[in-house]
């Protein structure tokens, strides 16, 4: 391409040149020539029937491995159960479940990719653009295309491949179904009732989590926050995790003048000390981040925020209601004790839906 004082030379698709004046539109030839498709190269499985059968056997093996891995994941859920008294057992359950499900997904993915790469027809084609229409001719052609795809892929012809793939696909979601199904047991009590009854009761001391040391009101300074459980929880031999999940409390002390308490709840705190459930009312995550300057509690899971100065009302995020408050006072020795259990269910709001 060259340029002089009279104008610019523009090279077109056919390597011809035209001269145009500066500022005028560029003139080109009509259309680019169709370069055509590259020469087709046959794969080794196209040329050698032995290689084709070997590839098919490998793919079948991958589908069988996927099926067996799904079965293993289900079996692992029962072979390595979660011991409610030993939280470390979760590691083994999670590891073997994860290995089974991951291997099942990996094997079925590798098998389908290998099927498409080594056994399905791979001839190049050009599909011209056309108007989208639902005419009878278009529908007939669609049926022909599906029939052709079935023939070229061998889906209807390669029965062993097809059946192992179907078996692997059927088995793949079973571990998830088993896990989700086990979350519900028809013999369980109503969840609202379960979440409304905790170990807190009149006179039960507030103790440190996890040491179990009792807490005096004088130990709680302004701006401090304590993770609290009911006295006697650490001594439980069975059911400790379930009870702790419901009864955990966050204890804080604010300047008395900062509290905006409703008259009916004014006696629920003691000298600026308040106690609220740590279980978020959104989906049950632990609310454990306390902002001393703003007196806000933050749930790290979905960023719900609660205002401690106003009975932990929701000021941001998806939580549906305030955190339940634990009424507290002090005993004759100055230790903080509960006045009663929570007056409402702890945990996610969805448990309180009708027929929950």
TrEMBL record:
Region listing for Disordered, in residue ranges: 1-49
InterPro entries linked: QcrA_N (IPR045603), Rieske_2Fe-2S (IPR017941), Rieske_2Fe-2S_sf (IPR036922), Rieske_Fe-S_prot (IPR014349)
Keywords assigned by UniProt, alphabetized: 2Fe-2S, Cell membrane, Disulfide bond, Electron transport, Iron, Iron-sulfur, Membrane, Metal-binding, Oxidoreductase, Respiratory chain, Transmembrane, Transmembrane helix, Transport
Residue ranges, compositional bias (Polar residues): 13-22
Family named by the database record: Belongs to the Rieske iron-sulfur protein family.
Key word Transmembrane helix present: yes
Biased composition (Basic and acidic residues): 38-49
Function: Iron-sulfur subunit of the cytochrome bc1 complex, an essential component of the respiratory electron transport chain required for ATP synthesis. The bc1 complex catalyzes the oxidation of menaquinol and the reduction of cytochrome c in the respiratory chain. The bc1 complex operates through a Q-cycle mechanism that couples electron transfer to generation of the proton gradient that drives ATP synthesis.
Upper taxonomic lineage: Bacteria, Bacillati, Actinomycetota, Actinomycetes, Micrococcales
Domain Rieske positions: 246-337
Organism: Pseudoclavibacter albus
Protein name: Cytochrome bc1 complex Rieske iron-sulfur subunit
Transmembrane segments: 58-80, 92-119
Subcellular location as annotated: Cell membrane
Membrane topology according to the record: Multi-pass membrane protein
Signal peptide from the UniProt entry: none
Pfam families: QcrA_N (PF19297), Rieske (PF00355)
């Amino acid at each position: 391409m060259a340029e002089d004082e009279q104008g610019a030379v523009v090279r077109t698709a056919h390597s011809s040149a035209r001269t145009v004046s500066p500022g005028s539109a560029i003139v080109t030839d009509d259309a680019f020539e169709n370069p055509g498709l590259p020469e087709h190269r046959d794969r080794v499985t196209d040329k050698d029937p032995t290689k084709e059968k070997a590839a098919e056997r490998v793919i079948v093996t991958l589908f069988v491995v996927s099926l067996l891995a799904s079965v293993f994941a289900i079996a692992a859920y029962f072979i390595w159960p979660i011991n409610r008294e030993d939280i470390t057992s979760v590691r083994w359950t999670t590891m073997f479940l994860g290995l089974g499900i991951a291997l099942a997904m990996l094997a079925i993915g590798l098998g389908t990719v290998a099927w498409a790469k080594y056994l399905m027809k791979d001839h190049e084609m050009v599909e011209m653009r056309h108007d989208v229409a639902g005419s009878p001719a278009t529908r007939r052609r669609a049926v022909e295309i599906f029939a052709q795809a079935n023939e070229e892929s061998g889906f209807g012809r390669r029965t062993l491949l097809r059946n192992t793939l179907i078996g692997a696909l059927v088995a793949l979601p079973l571990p998830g179904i088993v896990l989700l199904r086990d979350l519900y047991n028809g013999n369980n009590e109503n969840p609202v009732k379960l979440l409304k009854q905790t170990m807190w009761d009149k006179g039960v001391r507030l103790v440190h989590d996890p040491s179990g040391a009792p807490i005096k009101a004088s130990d709680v300074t302004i701006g401090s926050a304590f993770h609290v459980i009911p006295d006697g929880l650490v001594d439980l031999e069975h059911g400790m995790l379930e009870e702790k999940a419901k009864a955990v409390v966050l204890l804080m002390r604010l300047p008395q003048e900062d509290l905006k308490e409703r008259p009916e709840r004014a006696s629920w705190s003691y000298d600026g000390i308040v106690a609220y459930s740590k279980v978020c009312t959104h989906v049950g995550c632990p609310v454990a981040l306390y902002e001393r300057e703003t007196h806000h509690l933050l749930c790290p899971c979905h960023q719900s925020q609660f205002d401690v100065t106003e009975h932990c009302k929701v000021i941001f995020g998806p939580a549906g209601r305030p955190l339940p408050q634990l009424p507290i006072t002090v005993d004759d020795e100055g230790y903080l004790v509960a006045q009663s259990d929570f007056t409402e269910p702890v945990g996610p709001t969805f448990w309180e839906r009708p027929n929950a």
